[in-house]
Every structure is written in C-alpha cells, then in structure tokens.
C-alpha cells in the first residue's frame, strides 16, 4: 500500500468516526486530504474499495494464529489474555477504528464488505477455538463448555465492551475495563 493510500484510509476512518458512513463520500474524503476527486480515484476505484482496504489494514493488525498458538511457556489463558490486551491497546490508540470495525450499517448492504467482515470474524473465532481446544487438552480450560461457546462468549464480551466504550464517547479506560472483564472470563473458563 502506498503512503497516499494509507493517508486516504486514515482520513476515511476519521470521516466515518465523525460523520458516520453517510459522511464518507469521495467529495468529503478529497476535501479532507486536500486533493481532487479524480486524484482519489487513481488510488481507489470507489468507496467500497476504500472500506475493503480499511478492513484489510485491520486484518494485518490481528495476531497471527500460528504465532499465538506456539507462544513458548504461555498457558492458553495467557494467550487469550495477550489477544485481549492487543485489541484493547489498538482500539485505545485508534478509537476511530471502532466506528468502522463494529459498524453493522457499513456492511449490511454490500455483499463484498459483508463477506470481508465475516472472514475477519471467522479468523478470530478460529484463533480463539484453537487456543481453547489446546487449553482444554492441557487441562487449563473447562471441558464441560464447548470451545465454540467459549469463543463466542469471549468475542461477544470484547465487542460489547468496545461498543459501550464508543457509545460513551471513550470516557473510560478501555484497557483497565478490559482487564476487569478478562478477569471475569478467566474465572468462568478456567478449570
């Protein structure tokens, strides 16, 4: 990705955070980065291509499944904690990203975007499931709850806390609240 494309992506994220998806127009985006509309089209075919690039950039921030799974000397619960902290840190550093990643309105009417977000969810779910299964096998995580259900509880809790943080205009420490939530999740899943 070029420097200009990265600039366009950052400006698009900011526009969505400030004005919603309706505010993300090629005209507004061109104005935000002080270029002409035709200049934007040299970098991205359309608004959907920009949104796909945003999702791809988020995907690149996700931990690599195999890297997390083979983390030396870490229990499965510590690996889940590592992932939790990573997401809460990234969202704390870039709160505008939340407006895009957790916005149902952006993705519901576009099959290409819906497919992209579904893929991100599947990757996250698979990462958590592999870690949970390994934890169950190592007698660290409860086996009386299916791995898919634990993964759903973890992902749903993370999403709900981040969304609450956004709706409250980022007025609490996401990392601190994330730590508290993880403590509760740990109590529920630890064997």
Short description:
The chain is built from 11 helices and no strands. The chain is mainly α. Helix 6 runs antiparallel to helix 11.
**Uncertain residue ranges:** none
Number of helices: 11
Count the E strands: 0
Largest sheet data:
none
Overview of the molecule:
The chain has 191 residues and is mainly α. It has 11 helices and no strands. It has helices at residues 3-19, 26-32, 37-41, 47-61, 65-69, 76-93, 96-101, 104-107, 111-137, 147-167, 174-189.
Features:
74% helix; single chain; mainly alpha; 191 residues; 11 helices
Spell out the blueprint of helices and strands:
Blueprint: H1 3-19, H2 26-32, H3 37-41, H4 47-61, H5 65-69, H6 76-93, H7 96-101, H8 104-107, H9 111-137, H10 147-167, H11 174-189
């Amino acid at each position: 990705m070029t420097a200009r494309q990265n600039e366009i992506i950052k400006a698009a994220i900011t526009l969505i955070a400030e004005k919603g998806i309706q505010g993300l127009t090629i005209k507004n985006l061109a104005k935000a980065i002080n270029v002409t509309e035709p200049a934007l089209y040299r970098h991205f075919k359309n608004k959907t291509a920009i949104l796909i690039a945003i999702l791809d950039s988020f995907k690149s921030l996700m931990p690599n499944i195999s890297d997390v799974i083979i983390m030396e000397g870490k229990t499965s619960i510590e690996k889940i904690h590592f992932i939790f902290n990573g997401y809460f840190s990234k969202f704390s550093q870039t709160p505008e990203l939340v407006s895009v990643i957790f916005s149902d309105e952006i993705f519901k009417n576009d099959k290409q975007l819906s497919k992209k977000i579904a893929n991100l969810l599947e990757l996250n779910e698979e990462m958590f499931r592999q870690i949970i299964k390994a934890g169950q096998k190592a007698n660290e995580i409860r086996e009386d709850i299916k791995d898919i259900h634990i993964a759903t509880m973890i992902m749903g809790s993370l999403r709900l806390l981040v969304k609450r943080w956004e709706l409250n205009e980022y007025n609490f420490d996401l990392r601190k609240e994330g730590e508290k939530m993880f403590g509760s999740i740990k109590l529920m899943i630890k064997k």
